[in-house]
Amino acid sequence: MNYVKFNTNRVTQKLKQKWSAVYNKAASSGYLARAQRQHITTSDFSLRVTKHNVPTTLLALKYDWYKQFVSCMDIIAYDQPGKVYRFTVIYYLLSLTYNNRLQLITQTNELKGLDSAVMLYSSANWSEREVYDMYGIMFLYHPDLRRILTDYGFSGFPLRKDFPLTGYQELVYSDYSKTTEYRAVELTQEFRKTTYDKPWKETKFWSVKGS
Question: Domains, the chain, ranges and CATH?
Fold first, then answer.
């Protein structure tokens, strides 16, 4: 019996070319081409894309031979009021094969949502729910997009800059009904105006004549 000896290096090279050609053809864009050409050799790398290119870029970064970012560690966001796209969303990806980390950065606003990454990364399920719960960013095609940190019937999104520090409601115990219930926030005192050199100003009380 004659055994055929395969050249493993040649087979590996063919596989690399095949995977790169397939995903470059399926999702070709300017941002994606930049991601494909960039050979990541450092331990940390950031890639900024538009909201429309997030799904195709994640697809290429996960299945490309030279990247293999197979794990989505976390998804975070922060708010910058006054900008057209006030919310910045960051995907933290990890490549176990090459021991590299990547930050995929995109921007959106409260009216335009992002495509969900649950179909590519199952770990993004709760992370997207947290971002939605805190900032109100919609993730399209998410299988179960509902609040995860706040209580049932919570109004507003706590980590937005325009959300009041005290919130809108507070949970108190009612001596009349012997249960806990939600009420409008009542401040026991007004906010104090503070400065750097004089953090606590003197309080002016009302004085009644003859007392």
Answer: 8-155 (3.30.460.80)
